[in-house]
Amino acid sequence: MGDILDVITTRKSIRRYTTEPVPNDMILKVLEAGRWAPSGENYQPWRLIVVKDQKKKDTIARLSKIGTGSRATAWYSMGQMQERFEGIKDPEEKARVIRFMVSGEVSEFPSKAPVVIVVAGDLSESVDVPYDLSACLENMFLEAHSLGLGACWIHGPAGNIRHAIELKKLLGIPTGMGQYKVLAVMSVGWPLEQRRHPRPKKPLEEIVFWEEFGRKEPS
Q: pTM higher than 0.85, yes or no?
């Protein structure tokens, strides 16, 4: 059996795709990977809606833009956005990047993805819905990458109740507050961009402790 770490460390969130369609058999393999995710008490509360219709994808992209723009505006108001991009020395380039984030345009790409998968969870089945759905999403991301596809997690539409309800109505998901939770939108397609510079990760020595918090020496 191959080392799954190779798949994990080479995966990247892809936001730009070619226009080539993704065959249904590949989509089904991605969905199958999600189906095998771990689940609290094995309730498997995930419900996965595959969207190819362009008008629906355009609406999902609009809601994604609004949701992300709201979050980014809050980050900017707290100074976090400026801090995040302080490494950009060109003031015009920095302003362009911040506008791109605050406007929400950074999350408009679902409209140009061949496939969008909306991930929702049945709240009547489990109290672990956010955790189970996150595991399901990770499985699908890794399977997509292993098949040569690109994918990206978009949280935007799920962050606001009104937007989430609009998304539910668009896809026929029951809108009762205690029925279904929309956690994320996953775009899928053939990458138009490749991983050039993996984003740095914190070293193990910084995040791992042995036996108790703060102890860095292995037992």
A: yes
